[in-house]
Amino acid sequence: MLLTVDIGNTNITLGVFEGKKLHVTFRMTTIQTRTSDEYGMVMCELLEHNDVKVEEITDVIVASVVPNVMHSLTSAIIKYFHTKPIIIEAGVKTGIRVASKNPRQVGADRIVDAAAVYELYGGPAIVIDYGTATTFDLVDADGTFTACVIAPGIRTSAQAMWSMAAKLPEFEIKKPKSILAQDTIACMQAGLVYGQIGQTEYIVKQMKKEFGKGDIKVVATGGLGRIIEKDTDAIDIYDPMLTLQGMRLIFEKQKK
């Protein structure tokens, strides 16, 4: 079995593949101060809880945007799974060419998303990832990572409101019954969700206009993306497992 490890700023998402089939997924909090043994024990316990034996994991691939966890987590994988993980970084075959002044600045998660969209849905395409940041990445018809837009993420924006405004409470991120909200929490929910919908629609529209080359698919991913995609025609496909599938595809390229 293949273990895919997607390390984000907030969560680490793990997926177990049997061939091309995604067998199970689970998450753990990204804590930079964990030791290799702590990471190893948590991963093993989560696998066992999901009926996956540790010895069934034969390969591991990692995509990370948090450099500080890599030493401990890589050591944990080697110690507990007895295999050296593939780290998605410069030099790894992804099927995507990055047209950027500094390709090393493009996060591994975004390269993985671009590779997945291109392989699974074709190009040109815009892939939107609703994570800690909301990213809009443009992949050309020939698999070139052409341009991107980066905006504050949905949860990041919410946290900014309730942490920096003394009288604004913490609230559940969901779409209110109406944009014509009356109580404070519904007002904040309306501003956050409808604001993200409007942001999505305008950025996609402008990217398509300036790119100006044929029909462009728009594929969204990220857990909170589900809230947005239900209320906009700007998104053609919502694929919550896009990043994990991209990691599987990149793993297969390394084995060819």
TrEMBL record:
Task: Write down what this protein is called.
Answer: Type III pantothenate kinase
Q: What does this protein do?
A: Catalyzes the phosphorylation of pantothenate (Pan), the first step in CoA biosynthesis.
Question: Which UniProt keywords are present, listed alphabetically?
Answer: ATP-binding, Coenzyme A biosynthesis, Cytoplasm, Kinase, Metal-binding, Nucleotide-binding, Potassium, Transferase
What this protein needs as a cofactor is: K(+); NH4(+)
In its UniProt record, a GO molecular function of this protein is: ATP binding
How it assembles, according to the record, is: Homodimer.
Name the PANTHER family on file: TYPE III PANTOTHENATE KINASE
Family to which the UniProt record says this protein belongs = Belongs to the type III pantothenate kinase family.
What Enzyme Commission number(s) apply to this enzyme? Answer: 2.7.1.33
Which residues does the Swiss-Prot or TrEMBL record annotate as the active site? 109
Q: Name one GO biological process term.
A: coenzyme A biosynthetic process
Q: Which Pfam families match?
A: Pan_kinase
The protein's organism comes out as: Eubacterium ramulus ATCC 29099
Q: How is the cofactor bound?
A: A monovalent cation. Ammonium or potassium.
Q: Which reaction does it catalyse?
A: (R)-pantothenate + ATP = (R)-4'-phosphopantothenate + ADP + H(+)
Key word Kinase present in the record? yes
Q: Which biological pathway?
A: Cofactor biosynthesis; coenzyme A biosynthesis; CoA from (R)-pantothenate: step 1/5
Q: What GO cellular component entries does it have?
A: cytoplasm
Xref: CDD domains: ASKHA_NBD_PanK-III
Q: Which domain of life does the protein's organism represent?
A: Bacteria
Residues reported to bind K(+):
129
